Amino acid sequence: MRLHDKVVFITDADSPSGKAIIDRLSGEGAHFVLNSVSGGENIRANVERCQSAGSKVFVVNIDLCQSSEVEDMLESAAGQLGTVDILVHNNNVVRPISVETGEEALFLDIMNANAKSAFICTKAVGKQMEAKQSGKVVYVSSIHAEKPTGSSFAYSASKGAVKMLTREASIVLGRHGVNVNAIEFGPVEGDDAAFESDISTLYHSYRYKVPNAVLGSYEDLANLVLFLSADEARYLNGADIRMDGGFLMHYMDFKMKRPGGSV
User: Fold this and answer.
1) 230-258: pLDDT as tens digits
2) CA distance 227 to 237
3) Cα–Cα dist 137/181, whole Å
4) What kind of fold does domain 7-261 have according to CATH?
5) pTM for the full model?
6) Beta-carbon count within 10 A of 38 CB
7) Which residues have a Cβ under 8 Å from the Cβ of 214 and sit 6 or more positions away?
8) Mean pLDDT within 206-227
9) Is 228 in contact with 170 (CB distance < 8 Å)?
């Protein structure tokens, strides 16, 4: 088991990515601190599978943008499970907002949910990791740290902030044996609706803009999170790993792989 008795803190356990990561890592012997907006209701089946596999689970519902809440929670969790070995920050709030007409409050909501929470959690967990001179931080980010959405500039800005947080944290926490890396993930089923745009055609026929015309899954993501959380990734630090099946390499529609052999 690659994560035997390691304590993993997942910041959005209720999301599709969170559920897939829980299931994958529990099979490798991990224990969990799970932040769940539903208070555990939406991940009941996942938690039961974890416990059946021998994992210990500590479920909370806290505001990740409040340092005091995060620090108090980590102290309570440490009393039951031990300190955190692996932080998986997978917050991913997407809402339409325009540079021209967007409201400041919505901009701040998105930045706080996706970027400020990453900073707060990294700072708090980093103290525990520094004390034992080891740890892993994995940010589940997005290809939109690189590519505009055409629908939510604040989302792109928040993921761009996480990209630079990865690099800054890697050189600071890296001195204490902590690896900090980001996964720039996408696209998956439903992203055409999530990033629906009046000015961009990026997600038109987006499945076929993946060279092999096969979209990724959250299980694919969970496999990469596992690798970055394990000892095999000891020499990866400060990396942005794009996991998109080659989607962002697409540039000419007439060469797309389509059903029936047409291009």
Assistant:
1) 999 999 999 999 999 999 998 766 667 77
2) 13
3) 6
4) Rossmann fold (3.40.50)
5) 0.95
6) 12
7) 207, 245
8) 96
9) no
